[in-house]
Amino acid sequence: MVEILVVLIITSIMAGVAMVSFSNALKSANLQNAAERLRGDLILVRQQAMRERTNRSLTVDVANLSYAAPNVPGHLPQTTVGTSFQSGEGQISSMQLSMTSGGNTFTFDQNGNVANHGKVSLILGDRSVIVSVTKEGNCVIQ
Q1: Which residues contact 60 (CB under 8 A, 6 or more apart)?
Q2: Beta bridge partners of 84
Q3: pLDDT of 66-84, one tens digit each?
Q4: Which of the four, 47, 91, 124, 142, has the lowest number of CB atoms within 10 Å?
Q5: Which CATH number does the domain housing residue 96 bear?
Q6: Sign (positive/negative) of CA torsion 81, 25, 27, 122?
Q7: Total structural domains in the chain?
Q8: Is 19 strand, coil or helix?
Q9: pTM above the 0.85 mark?
């Protein structure tokens, strides 16, 4: 009887550790998914600006954990590329934005360059991922 109780206690402890590990892995995956989505849409906006030889912008809304790029065809037949990180696979708990000239908009010119470059930090619990946009318009996940 005591042996069964010891086995149950050890099994419970191992299950608890596994749940914490799984939860941490899920947070990391959600955060990485959100960063990849943002980076992909930044690249899409940049490519559209270069293809059409015009300026295209992506605006980050930190308060609503979202971003949008109007008048840029997305993967679906829509006129706005963007997302909200408040629910679903890419859920995050907060965002921070740091841009060289203030503001909240990345505007790519016809050469793919961006005047107001900076970083978007996506945060979930104690984890964070940074999506950087260089003045040359390159988008990198850090």
Answers
A1: 66, 67, 95, 97, 104, 105, 106, 120
A2: 66
A3: 888 887 765 444 444 557 6
A4: 142
A5: 3.55.40.10
A6: negative
A7: 1
A8: helix
A9: no
